[in-house]
Amino acid sequence: MKKILTLLTLLSIPMICSAEWLGGRTPSATYGAKFIEFGIDSPPADKTCSFFGRHMRFDATTPEGKNIFTMLMTAIATNRTIDIWYVPSDKPGTDHTTGCRGSSIATVTAIGLK
What we know:
This protein has 114 residues and is α+β, with helices and mostly antiparallel strands. Helices cover 28% and strands 32% of the residues. It has helices spanning 2-18, 63-77, and strands at 20-25, 27-32, 35-40, 56-59, 82-87, 106-113. Strands 1-5-6-4-3-2 form a six-stranded mixed sheet.
């Protein structure tokens, strides 16, 4: 069991290390059901796209997504900023009129409260 846990930990390191990071952002424009999408202040145009003001998304049906959702709602309710680790959009610099779709916005892998 210990070997399996060690292996799983080592396999997850590249995913965490390959994520981009943004610090101290204010979430806004929250929308969704299975996938939660939200906007942020000062999104990096070279790494995100804007789908009706939303730049980030995550799957709220997974255990990780449920944790992210709880932290996101806490940040919004208490006017706190968040740090975001994410995988960049595959359509950076676009918006909903030029090719950005809900499935194209950046995918959140973790957030932290400030």
